[in-house]
Design a protein that fits this description.
Largest sheet: 5 strands, mixed
CATH superfamily: Gcn5-related N-acetyltransferase (GNAT)
Helix content: 25-40%
Order of helices and strands: EHHHHEEEHEH
CATH architecture: 3-Layer(aba) Sandwich
Length: 156
Amino acid sequence: MDKELTLIPFHEHPLRDEWLANSEKLIEQIVRKSGKTWTENGFSKEAALTVWNQLAQGEEPYGLHAAVLNDSHILVFTFGTPWYAKGKWIIEQFFLRIGKGSSKDAFDAIDLLAAKLGASGVTMATSLASDDSALGRLLASHGYSPMSSQHFKGYN
């Protein structure tokens, strides 16, 4: 029998208030740990917290959606069609471990979400990873392949 996978909208999850209480600390840790240069010039903790709080209230700022995957990860994403693609894609904006559980189950839940939404593809990035290569290998082990590289130039 297949393992049951769960997809719960962030604003409906029973641990939402606990995650909200720790959100500022969590965002600071992620940004500090990532060591990415874009976080120095293009990042606003206040904007991130505002969006996080809006998602927790069930709003969809900037077309963002948030789903908790098997109580172990949260996926913040948009759902749309890149100009070069056939069909709609899940476009990951933020993917983070928030509890115990395997990454395999989280990726299986992403597959379930893609099927539920009728997505023809899913893109995942390494924007906040402290080690792009390690996350790239993890993504590859779940069937993802590199499609591009992003570069950032910030202005104060």
